[in-house]
Amino acid sequence: MAGGVHTKARCPQYPNSEVNRLAVPDDRVSWGKEWTEYAPVDYTAPSVKAGPVWADPDIDSPRGTHSMVTRSSREVIEKFKWNSIDGKVNRKSYSATYQVPDGIPRNPFGRTGISGRGLLGKWGPNHAADPIVTRWKRDKKGNKITDPTSKKPILQFVSIKRKDSGAWAIPGGMVDAGEKVSITLKREFGEEALNHLEVPEVERKATEKEIAALFKRGYEVYRGYVDDPRNTDNAWMETIAVNFHDEDGKSVGKIPLAAGDDAADVHWSDISSDLCLYASHSEFIEKTALYRKAHWAAAS
User: Fold this and answer.
1) Interior/surface letters 129-165, b for 16+ CB within 10 angstroms, e for the rest
2) Are 102 and 115 in contact (CB under 8 A)?
3) What is the radius of gyration, based on Cα positions, of the chain?
4) Dihedral, CA atoms, 208, 211, 216, 220, nearest 10 degrees?
5) Across the strands, what pairs with 135?
6) pLDDT truncated to tens, each residue of the chain (300 aa)?
7) Is the pTM for the entire model greater than 0.85?
8) SS3 letters for the chain?
9) φ, ψ for residue 85 (rounded to 5)?
10) Rounded CA separation 148/142 (Å)
11) Phi/psi of residue 101, each to 5°?
12) Residues 275/269, Cβ–Cβ less than 8 Å
């Protein structure tokens, strides 16, 4: 996330719930700003509390002191290895070493108005991977189309419409425990943008070959904290965003897209500053456009 305070992580109503955050003014986001009356709403989604395999054990009173945490929760806390590799789980932050007051991780980018884990499975950083697959926009003759104002070629990227929020986004997802990020990038793109979970095996293997070839060469656009509406004081999203560019549009750029898994829709979107995307995704797309020397905003 670029400089400044997170904003989407302070959205008034927490996603997929009727829980309202405590309002946190811009000048009270930083933990360095004293706020003795700060009492965030404590919320962990029932689906997370149910204890699925991808979620950490629950901890009582995440915003309290040791004296407020039950003995069983203290025993759970002591088993975690914060800011390190904990078995197959990477609990390191891409951004900074986070503080762990009272044995529970604290969001390094400040207050969010809600404690607990919300919809996130892990205490502390929850790692994702976002594949930004691009191609040049071309006319019927195959020539690159340029923006009339900036005079720069227009870049397109594969975008999906999320089922949970209806927002358009990069087709990324969570890194499974022990999984390499490179594997996550290919898996998520195949599942969300090409519907690999449901297509016939012969067709899937053919497209997987094209994806594997393209994904051998990527440019890391971003690594760090994500201003995500699911973030809380004790659990937050981080990602690695990588651009995979199909220069001549003859590999992945020609494969028919099909929404699958967590995606309700998918298409090639023109890249420009007019985009309004989920979480910090617009920031990642802007970085990609600048790197490719493509159109982003009209010349001033």
Assistant:
1) bbbbbbbbbbeeeeeeeebeebebbbbbbbbbbbeee
2) no
3) 21
4) -130
5) 156, 246
6) 655 789 999 999 999 999 999 999 999 999 999 999 999 999 999 999 999 999 999 887 555 444 445 555 677 888 999 999 999 999 999 999 999 998 999 999 999 999 999 999 999 999 999 999 999 999 999 999 999 999 999 999 999 999 888 999 999 999 999 999 999 999 989 888 888 888 788 888 888 888 999 999 999 999 999 999 999 999 999 999 999 999 998 888 888 888 887 888 999 999 999 999 999 999 999 999 999 999 999 765
7) yes
8) CCCCCCCHHHCCECCCCCCECCCCCHHHCCCCCCCCCCCCEEEECHHHHCCCCCCCCCCCCCCCCHHHCCHHHHHHHCCCCCCCEECCEECCCCCCCCCCHHHCCCCCCCCCCEEEEECCCCCEEEEEEEEEEEEECECCCCCECECCCCCCECEEEEEEEECCCCCEECCCEECCCCCCHHHHHHHHHHHHHCCCCCCCHHHHHHHHHHHHHHCCCCEEEEEEECCCCCCCCCEEEEEEEEEEEECCCCCHHHCCCCCCCCEEEEEEEECCCCCCCCCCHHHHHHHHHHHCCCCCCCCC
9) -80, 120
10) 18
11) -65, 135
12) yes
Q: Both tokens of residue 8?
A: 């989407």
